[in-house]
Records
---
Amino acid sequence: GWPPSPSTMVPLRMTRSNVIPRIYDEPVIDHFGINCGDLAKSTEFYDTVLGVLGYTRQMDYEVAIGYGKDGFPYFWIADGKDMGPNREIHVAFQAADTDAVQAFYDTALKLGAESLHAPRLWPEYHPGYFGAFVRDPDGNNVEAVCHTFEPPPG
């Protein structure tokens, strides 16, 4: 029946590209991030509470820290002290390939989204990271990303 009983609901899990593994066959969320009013306080908080769950810092850019496992940062915190109380969030949706990233970007712009970053490689994240970023109608930073980019031969 509907709604499902709590005992049959699948809890959200912060795992790489597997947010609700028993409902979706395909991954949806690749990673997400929040902006923090006090990054030092949030860093202490997330270092501690995520550490209890087995997650650690995977990347640290001083103004942004990515937490996860096995070299993959799934959850990011960033310095948002100058953003006020209504800070944007960042969510990255997994794309199948670079063509899908480009299609996401083109479609978003046609719908009036602001371009934050056109599709390109982001080697500072890792060599195969190909993503595009737009601002959605509510001001959030939305990305499409694929991790399978291979440069053309030659």
---
Amino acid sequence: VFGIFSDKNGGVVVYYTLYILCYTKEVTRVQIREMNATFGKLKNDTLTLQPGLNCIYAPNESGKSTWSHFLRVMLYGINTRDRGPLADKHRFAPWAGWAMGGKMDLVTDEGETITLRRDTARANAPMGNFSCTYTGTATPAPFQRGCVRRKARSF
């Protein structure tokens, strides 16, 4: 769960690192530990999160909203049917001209570490390649694509 709160000097992005992934038929909680992105203004940048609530306070135009959009795209993909300059596939195309891509390291309540990856193989399908493996291996984790659910949490 994340939100963006602004003030006159900048903004704060709040990440609560609890997400739910569907493993076969079970629901497992995971925490996001690290994200690495080439997405919008981010050029192979890394964001490391701690367990629990993470607040990111930074000046305007420093990438807080970009990280929020990257997180959503990593979990749900990017809508390639949207058209126009404000479609996410155009709006978050890397400024450096690189291919859009990234990875997200997760840890389950059982202590298993999982890496989600998305990258771009075709220009018309940014972030279309998806993989979910146990971290440091090529072994697929039992993840059903499209089965990520957000869990409502009040603050």
---
Amino acid sequence: GVQLWRLINPNAGTGTITVTFSDASVYAVGGAVSFINVNQTTPLGTVAGAGPTTSNAPSVAVVSAIDDLVISAAGADNDGTYTPGGGQDERWDLQVATATCGTGSTEPGAATVTMDYTLSASREWVTQGVSVKAVVVAGPSPTISASPLVGNLRW
């Protein structure tokens, strides 16, 4: 499965993301992205999901808006690599041995944004996406910017 998590207004500075599974045989990949200029009251829109489906073309349509930023993640059984669709900025593309692979990307918001990927082979996949809402200010809207977090993700 795919899960998207959020932390509103985290402390400045470096931090550690630790994921612990009760079943040691679980294989997982993960990525993290930090955003600025996000609405702190209502930071996210409605999560959209698709799958499980077997193909080489994970895709999900996300309701969004201009000035927002859409983030999505996809995961698949077995090994493989992803190529994000046009207009998407890849944030991670990882695999664990031959057990699982996952990716994440962002794309500027519009009324509806289709987050799609091409997998290197046909696999059973799932995907989710959500609109990250821009902070509301008087005058021109600031741009939400995203950057992958550099460091260790421990599994």
